[in-house]
């Protein structure tokens, strides 16, 4: 309830508008690409909370240290230890098998590169979802 209220306020003051289809009714992989800014996280929560989608997202384990850990987990975060990525796959599979309906947000990182003229350009890393999903599409548009 509180999340939807926060999302409603966010979209009321945002320069973006939310355009979407029906909400997924089964576990779904959602791609947020290219991930270029920490504001992408706020946008992702705004979309998920407005549509009532329970989302989980993968984040580097350093985001879950100290006081941020409980907060990040409460927001749907799953810490990724890059030295043992199979653990994350096992966790996600067990959630799917338990019947939980959620969206797993995968955000391929875009890296910024400096061009010869000194300007910054962003290039997205290619990504493929772990499993195909006939999920609904929701996008935020300016």
Describe the protein in words.
This protein has 142 residues and is of the alpha/beta class. The protein has one domain. It is built from four helices and eight strands, in the order H-E-E-H-E-H-E-H-E-E-E-E. It has helices at residues 2-13, 39-51, 68-74, 86-97, and strands at 17-20, 28-31, 55-60, 77-80, 103-106, 110-114, 120-124, 138-141. It has a four-stranded parallel β-sheet, sandwiched between helices. Strands 1-8 form a two-stranded antiparallel ribbon. Strands 6-7 form a two-stranded antiparallel sheet. Helix 3 links the parallel strand 3 and strand 4. The longest helix has 13 residues, at 39-51. It is globular and about 40 Å long. Mean pLDDT is 75; it is low at 119-138.
In short:
With 142 residues, the chain is of the alpha/beta class. The chain has helices at 2-13, 39-51, 68-74, 86-97; strands at 17-20, 28-31, 55-60, 77-80, 103-106, 110-114, 120-124, 138-141.
Which terms summarize this structure?
alpha/beta, 142 residues, 4 helices, single chain, four-stranded parallel beta sheet
Give the amount of beta strand, in percent: 25-35%
Major sheet attributes: 4 strands, parallel
Distance N to C terminus: 26 Å
Number of domains: 1
Query: How many DSSP H or I helices?
Result: 4
The tally of strands reads 8
CA-based shape = globular
Radius of gyration: 16 Å
From N to C, what is the helix and strand string? HEEHEHEHEEEE
- Which percent bin holds the helix content? 25-40%
Identify the strand order in the major beta sheet.
2-5-3-4
Structural class call reads alpha/beta
Low-confidence stretches: 119-138
Mean pLDDT: 75
